[in-house]
Inverse folding.
């Protein structure tokens, strides 16, 4: 019987992590050196959405997301925020799956950017946005009341 070294244990641990589906972090913006489990929820959601809804396109998923965000807003008074937030999250996962990127990886990168930003004072609705270096205000707001857009109005998402 041989002597087990730390090196042996290290390689056993690496083999275990790889068998379990973990991968070494290679997110340039994160660079944490940690081991992350792949986006199994994103993959399951994306595969289920394709099986259930067919080859639904991203614009339709985003339109559905708008409806779910409205329900999330209404949920504040009904006490169903977790359920409606989960609906929004699952639709975002479906977009990421369809477009071929990891929502978790992109969120990690965005969090790193947001931590370096300067944040302004709340606006009239209590919303705080990051201070833009070029002092350009945000590009309009979403038409939450679902008033039909006129022929010369620009859709908040561009061409649909």
């Amino acid at each position: 019987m041989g002597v087990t070294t730390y090196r042996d244990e290290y390689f056993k641990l690496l083999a275990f992590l790889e068998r379990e589906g973990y991968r070494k972090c290679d997110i340039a913006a994160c660079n944490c050196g940690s081991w992350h489990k792949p986006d199994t929820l994103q993959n399951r959601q994306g595969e289920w959405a394709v099986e259930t809804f067919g080859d639904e396109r991203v614009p339709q998923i985003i339109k559905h997301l708008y409806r779910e965000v409205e329900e999330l807003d209404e949920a504040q008074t009904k006490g169903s925020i977790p359920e409606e937030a989960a609906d929004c999250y699952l639709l975002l996962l479906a977009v990421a799956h369809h477009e071929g990127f990891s929502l978790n990886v992109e969120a990690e990168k965005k969090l790193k950017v947001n931590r370096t930003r300067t944040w302004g004072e709340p606006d009239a609705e209590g919303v705080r946005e990051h201070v833009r270096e070029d002092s350009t205000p945000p590009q309009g707001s979403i038409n939450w009341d679902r008033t039909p857009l006129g022929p010369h109005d620009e859709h908040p998402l561009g061409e649909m």
